[in-house]
Design a protein that fits this description.
Blueprint lengths: L6 H26 L4 H5 L10 H20 L13 H15 L4 H4 L6 E3 L9 E3 H27 L14
Antiparallel strand pairs: 1-2
Length: 169
């Protein structure tokens, strides 16, 4: 199998599917246990870590931003951490629809194209598109999706490792 920048589009779609699946399971668990949606979206793995809503926001935003940047396109959108469950599910569906509009031709020959992006207040690295997408964005998507999973497991949501493959293999 040849890996191209376009390969990440389907990978990110799968991670969005997993995020939506986990969110539905978490929302069902919260409803069954009399936990308000807002409280569930505020769950944290540790007090000094970002809440569940932030984790979902990052998974969604990175899935929208980085393929577009790698393809030399404008960002495909942005969601905020203030959404409710229905809002996150709609944002994830919208992100998947936007990813579906991307084509392999948009990524052709862009692997080594340098992209500069500001991270925080002090870093502004210039890296090839393939490094931003294949390392930076993918690592962040998996990290934040893992935090969604860990937060829910810690709170008692009945999920297991297979739930991370809700978007298929």
């Amino acid at each position: 199998m040849t890996i191209s920048l376009f390969s990440f589009v389907d990978l990110y779609r799968r991670q969005l599917d997993a995020a939506a699946h986990l969110l539905r399971k978490g929302a069902a668990f919260a409803a069954e246990n009399g936990i308000a949606e807002a409280d569930m979206l505020g769950w944290r793995l540790a007090e000094d870590m970002h809440p569940l809503a932030f984790q979902l926001m990052v998974v969604t935003n990175f899935s929208l931003w980085w393929p577009a940047r790698a393809a030399g396109l404008a960002e495909l959108g942005q969601v905020e951490a203030t959404l409710d469950v229905a809002g996150f599910l709609a944002a994830i569906a919208d992100a998947k629809a936007k990813l579906a509009t991307l084509t392999a031709d948009q990524f052709a020959g862009r692997d080594a194209v340098p992209l500069t992006f500001k991270i925080g207040e002090t870093m502004e690295p210039t890296l090839p598109a393939e490094q931003w997408l294949g390392v930076f964005a993918t690592t962040n998507i998996y990290f934040h999706l893992s935090m969604v999973y860990a937060i829910m497991r810690m709170k008692g949501v009945p999920i297991g490792k297979l739930d991370l493959f809700a978007g298929s293999f």
